[in-house]
Amino acid sequence: MIGDAYAQVRNYATLGVDAGYAALLDNEKAAYPMGGAASSLSFGYEMQYKRRLLFNVGVSARYAYTMSGVGEQTLPLRMRDTEGEEFNYNCFFFDGRNRLNSLYVNIPVMIGCQTSKMYFLVGGRLLLDVWSAAKVSTHLTTTASYDRYIGVLEGMEEHQIYTDRYIEVQPASPRFAPQLNVCAEIGWRLEHSIENVTGFDVEQKKILYRLGIFAEYGVLDQNRHNAQEPRLSFYDDGKGLEYNLNHVYNSVDTKNLHLSNLLVGLRFTVLFQIPERKDCVLCRDEYSSARHSSGGGRIDK
Fold first, then answer.
1. Count of Cβ atoms closer than 10 Å to residue 216 Cβ
2. Which residues sit opposite 157 in a β-bridge?
3. Neighbour count for residue 33 (Cβ, 10 Å)
């Protein structure tokens, strides 16, 4: 009976790699995804019951690169020129990019089933943000106009009236709250059996291979809601205006948004069967022989 119970359960150590498309999403579309990618390396354990039902847990490290675009923004200012005369200074920001490199540790818990050729898993992953680095860029066009003059001044770089000035900075990176991703994975089984030893009491050891398509979506709010600075601001450095840029998801502009993540890709997994407990064939035969031997009711061995 014990042998039958162990035969129904098989245990595997798992090693997996994946890669796919990654994006950050907010509920009001303050920013829009412009391409991104993520890749993971994972280690885990899987239990298979009757070779059909699957239970999978583990830990993985995920690197993600996301880029978000933001809409055009105009910043009207009232300024004074070197002669002390007031004028209207209009800053037009466009083609904004917010790039973010992130490293996560995540813990998956999955259940599923399989056939001889296919498998299917569903479950969740807890994502913990451990590191990030941001880079922000935008293009700037400025114009100037005076109340007493007709017309708009353009294309005067020496007077900080820019036609297309490119600005790029590395601001403080947004740090995200823990996230729970709901996950689904479906794919194909690619198995290869390796016989190390043969014999009546030695079972074949197996290495199993899987190739699957997966999708993940965050259901919790990753936004920490603690941003204090605007996405765009300016200051006077004594020579003229300079500009501060913040990552869109690390600014008061998006402080109250619900932020989530999306990941879709391919995953390749290798499963290494863990050696199982086996019955002692000789001991079982000796015990059975002793029970049926004649000449007494006592068993010496």
1. 23
2. none
3. 15
Share of the chain above pLDDT 70, in %: 85
The span from the CA of 21 to the CA of 37, in Å, is 5
Say which residues have a Cβ less than 8 Å from residue 206's Cβ, sequence separation at least 6: 191, 192, 193, 194, 273
Question: What does the block give as tokens for 162?
Answer: 């820019």
Residue 150 phi, psi (nearest 5)? -90, 140
| Closest CA relative to residue 271, chosen from 42, 41, 46 | 46
pTM of the shown model: 0.82
Task: Give which of 258, 249, 257, 253 is closest to 221, Cα–Cα.
Answer: 258
For residue range 141-185, list pLDDT tens digits in order. 999 998 888 888 888 888 888 999 999 999 999 999 999 999 999
Q: How far is CA 17 from CA 35, 48, 89, 150, 286, in A?
A: 21, 21, 52, 64, 48
